[in-house]
Amino acid sequence: MKSGPLKRARPLGGQSGILVIVATISLILPVVGVALLGWGGYRLAVSDPVGWWLLAAGGGIIAMDIVLDVMWAHPSLGASEEPGLSRPGTDLVGRTGIVTQPIVLGRGKVRLGDTEWIAEGVDQDVGSLVRVLAVKDVVVLVERV
After folding, report:
1. Residue ranges of domains in the chain
2. How do 129-136 and 96-104 pair as beta strands?
3. Quick check: 143 and 110 in contact, CB under 8 A?
4. Which residue in 30, 34, 90, 109 is a FRET match for 100, CA 20 to 30 A apart?
5. pLDDT digit string (tens) for 108-138?
6. For residues 91 and 80, is the Cβ–Cβ distance under 8 A?
7. Which of 117, 121, 122, 124 minimizes the C-alpha distance to 139?
């Protein structure tokens, strides 16, 4: 049996390297924070005023970990200022298409490019030209051209 060349593991770098570093820090911070809280509590128990500083440092580290975890779990908190970014279908707004299944009682189908979409709007016959006003999930809202 012939074996091929071994694949090299790609080095940590770019975004994946940053994610590994942030994940590692996120795992270490609560341990350090709890250790400082415990040590600070002990120092206060033996009447050492340094215990207050240790409690503050431990609480701050745990708070920092919570903020990091919330930002990690909710990336939309750092969302882009670009309005159409990561919103599928927004590039369809303003395009014209052809009704392929009559829009009856406000619902039918239209062809935009090479894709058929569920459409909502005023009743239209097959072959009518329509313009996309908005996109809501997988439904395009259309008007007659």
Report:
1. 14-78, 90-144
2. antiparallel
3. no
4. 90
5. 999 998 999 999 999 999 999 999 999 888 8
6. no
7. 117
d(CA 6, CA 21): 26
- Is the pLDDT confidence value at 101 over 90? yes
Residue 98: which of 122, 121, 144, 129 has the closest Cα? 129
- Report the CATH superfamily, name and number, of domain 90-144: Nucleic acid-binding proteins (2.40.50.140)
DSSP 56-74: HHHHHHHHHHHHHHHHHH-
Q: Give residue-wise pLDDT tens across range 86-97.
A: 566 778 899 999
What is the Cα–Cα distance from 70 to 138, expressed in whole angstroms?
A: 29
Report the run of H or E that residue 16 belongs to, with start and end: helix 14-45
Strand partners, 117: 110
| Local structure of 96: helix, strand or coil | strand
Predicted confidence (pLDDT) per residue in 22-60, tens digit: 888 888 999 999 999 999 999 999 999 999 999 999 999
